[in-house]
Backbone:
C-alpha cells in the first residue's frame, strides 16, 4: 500500500513537524494506550492546574505516520482547554482536524481519543476527582 | 513531489527495476512495425514469432533449460498460481503439497485457497536465518506428496535456499519440485538441471524487463494442464495472445543482466556489505534479518527496536529515499510480515523492519546518504517513542540498582 499522496497535507505536516513531543515531569495525568504487538502505542502527559485547565500537554508515540499525526493534533486540541472541553476531543474531531485519514488508519485517531481519556482517568485517580462521562480506559497497554 | 522523483535514491529494487534503453529499443519495433500476431499464418506473424523464439532460447540458456521448456506468462504470480493449482488438481485431494512458510503470497494464498477446497497442504518452517528446516521437510514429504514448493531466494530477507538438497528430499519420495525464482532470476546463478528443479517461476520486471511478462519453466516430462484457457499459444499450455514486446524485452533484459552477472554480484554485494557494516556499527538496537552469507547480493533487511516501520519509511521518503517495510501499518492488516514472524521475530520488533534492495544503478554515495538519513530518522523516532523511554528508564534503574549493590558489597 502506498501512502505518498494518500495522507493529507495536514497529516504530513503533523508527522514531519510533530507538536508537543516529549514528557512532562510530575504530570497531573499520564495515559498510555495501544499495543506494541499491533504496532501502535500512544502516551499522553497532561499538566492540569487547580482550575481544571490543561496548561500543558505532551505526547510520545510508537506507530505509523497517522498515529504520530493524530497524537500531535490531539495535544494541540486539548492544550489550554478545560477538562470538559478536552472530553469533546473525539476521534472524529481529531480526524476532521487532520483533513481525514485513510480508512485503514481510522483506529489511530481513536487511539488518540483513548490516550487523552486514559490521561484524564489517571488525573482523576491521583486527585480523587470524577469527570462526568469518563470511563476507565479499556485499551490498556498491559491488556 | 514530481520534481524530486528523478532524484530519488531508489533502494526498492526487489519491488521492481528500471529498464535499460537498449531493452526499450529492442521492444519498440514490435509495437510499431512488426506488430503482427505470432499465431497468424500470414507473413506478418513471422517476424514476431521468430523474435519470441529467440527470447525463449536466451532465457532457457541462462537457466540451463531447453527452449521448449519455457512458457511465457503474465508474471511471477501467474506462474506460481499455475504451477501449484495445476499440480494439485491433477494429483487430487488424496495427495499433499508442501510449501515453506516464507513463500510469497502468490504461493501461500493459492495454497490456502486449495486447502479450503479440500486439498492437503503442509507448511514447512524456517530457522532464525530463514533457511528451510530440512529435517522437518523430510518428515513432511511422503509418498503422497505431489509437489514441494520452496522459493529460490526470499523477497524480504534475501535468504537463499539450498535448492539441491530440497529437490533431493522431494525427489526421494517421488514428488515434483517447484521454485519461485522471482527474486533470483538474473541476480544469482540458476541451473535447473544441477539443482533438480522441475518447475521454476520468474518475473521479467524484477530484472529489467517490462511489467506484465514472466515465465514458467516446466521440465520436459512434467505434465502440466493449462491454467489459462482459450487458445493454442505456448504449445496449447498457456492461452492468450502472445505479449510480443514483453517477451522480446524480457529476452533482451535477460541477455544484458546475465552477461556480467559475476561482476554485478560483486559490486552490489560490496554496497550491501557496506550498508550492513555501517548500520551495525552506528545504529544501536538494530538486528540484521536473513542469513549473513547465503543472501541475495542486493538485500539489506534490518529491524530497529522502538520504532515503527511505516513512519521510518515516510521519513526516508521525505528525504527522497525509497525503501519498503514489513510493518503491518503499511499493509492494512494487524500482523506484520509473515516472513519476519516465521524467522521468530516478536510482533513489536517485526513492526520496525526496513528492507533496502540495491541494484547496480545505486552508488556508494547513495548508500552512505541512505544510512545517514536512516540513522537520524531512527534517532528522531526513538526520541518520541514511549517504548524507548520505558526501556531507557528501566536500564537506568537497573544500572543504579547495580551501583547500589556494588556499593553495599
Residues:
Amino acid at each position: 500500500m502506498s501512502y505518498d499522496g494518500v495522507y493529507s497535507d495536514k497529516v504530513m505536516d503533523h508527522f514531519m513537524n510533530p507538536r508537543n513531543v516529549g514528557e512532562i515531569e510530575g504530570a497531573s495525568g499520564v495515559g498510555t494506550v495501544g499495543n506494541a504487538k499491533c504496532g501502535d502505542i500512544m502516551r499522553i502527559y497532561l499538566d492540569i492546574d487547580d482550575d481544571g485547565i490543561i496548561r500543558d500537554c505532551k505526547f510520545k508515540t510508537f506507530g505509523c505516520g497517522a498515529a504520530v499525526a493524530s497524537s500531535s493534533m490531539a495535544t494541540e486540541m486539548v492544550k489550554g482547554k478545560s477538562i470538559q472541553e478536552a472530553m469533546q476531543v473525539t476521534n472524529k474531531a481529531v480526524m476532521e482536524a487532520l483533513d481525514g485519514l485513510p480508512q485503514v488508519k481510522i483506529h489511530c485517531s481513536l487511539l488518540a481519543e483513548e490516550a487523552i481519556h486514559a490521561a484524564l482517568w489517571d488525573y482523576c485517580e491521583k486527585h480523587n476527582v470524577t469527570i462526568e462521562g469518563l470511563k476507565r480506559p479499556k485499551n490498556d497497554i498491559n491488556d | 513531489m514530481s520534481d524530486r522523483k528523478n532524484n530519488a535514491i531508489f533502494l526498492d529494487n526487489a519491488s521492481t527495476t528500471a529498464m535499460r534503453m537498449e531493452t526499450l529499443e529492442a521492444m519498440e519495433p514490435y509495437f510499431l512495425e512488426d506488430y503482427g500476431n505470432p499465431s497468424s499464418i500470414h507473413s506478418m506473424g513471422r517476424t514476431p514469432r521468430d523474435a519470441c523464439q529467440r527470447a525463449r532460447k536466451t532465457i532457457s540458456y541462462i537457466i540451463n533449460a531447453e527452449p521448449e521448456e519455457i512458457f511465457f506468462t503474465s508474471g511471477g504470480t501467474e506462474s506460481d498460481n499455475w504451477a501449484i493449482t495445476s499440480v494439485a488438481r491433477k494429483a487430487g485431494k488424496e495427495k499433499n503439497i508442501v510449501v515453506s512458510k516464507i513463500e510469497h503470497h502468490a504461493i501461500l494464498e493459492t495454497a490456502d485457497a486449495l486447502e479450503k477446497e479440500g486439498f492437503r497442504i503442509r507448511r514447512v518452517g524456517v530457522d532464525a536465518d530463514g533457511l528451510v528446516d530440512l529435517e522437518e521437510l523430510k518428515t513432511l514429504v511422503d509418498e503422497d506428496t505431489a509437489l514441494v514448493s520452496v522459493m529460490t531466494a526470499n523477497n524480504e530477507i534475501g535468504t537463499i535456499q539450498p535448492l539441491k538438497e530440497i529437490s533431493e528430499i522431494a525427489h526421494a519420495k517421488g514428488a515434483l519440485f517447484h521454485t519461485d525464482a522471482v527474486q533470483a532470476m538474473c541476480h544469482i546463478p540458476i541451473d535447473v538441471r544441477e539443482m533438480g528443479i522441475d518447475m521454476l517461476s520468474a518475473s521479467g520486471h524484477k530484472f529489467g524487463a517490462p511489467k506484465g511478462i514472466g515465465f514458467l519453466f516446466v521440465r520436459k516430462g512434467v505434465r502440466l494442464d493449462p491454467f489459462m484457457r482459450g487458445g493454442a499459444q505456448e504449445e496449447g499450455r498457456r492461452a492468450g495472445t502472445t505479449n510480443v514486446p514483453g517477451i522480446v524485452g524480457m529476452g533482451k533484459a535477460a541477455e544484458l543482466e546475465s552477461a556480467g552477472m559475476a561482476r554485478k554480484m560483486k559490486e552490489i554485494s560490496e554496497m550491501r556489505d557496506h550498508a550492513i557494516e555501517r548500520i551495525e556499527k552506528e545504529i544501536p538496537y538494530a538486528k540484521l534479518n536473513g542469513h549473513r552469507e547465503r543472501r541475495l547480493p542486493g538485500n539489506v533487511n534490518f529491524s530497529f527496536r522502538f520504532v515503527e516501520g511505516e513512519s521510518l519509511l515516510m521519513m526516508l521518503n521525505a528525504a527522497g529515499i525509497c525503501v519498503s517495510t514489513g510493518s503491518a501499518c503499511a499493509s492494512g492488516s494487524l500482523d506484520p510480515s509473515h516472513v519476519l514472524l516465521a524467522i521468530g521475530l516478536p510482533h513489536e520488533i517485526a513492526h520496525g523492519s526496513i528492507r533496502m534492495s540495491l541494484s547496480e544503478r545505486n552508488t556508494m554515495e547513495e548508500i552512505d546518504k541512505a544510512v545517514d538519513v536512516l540513522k537520524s530518522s531512527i534517532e528522531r523516532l526513538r526520541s518520541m517513542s514511549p517504548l524507548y523511554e520505558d526501556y531507557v528508564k528501566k536500564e537506568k534503574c537497573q544500572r543504579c540498582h547495580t551501583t547500589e549493590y556494588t556499593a553495599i558489597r
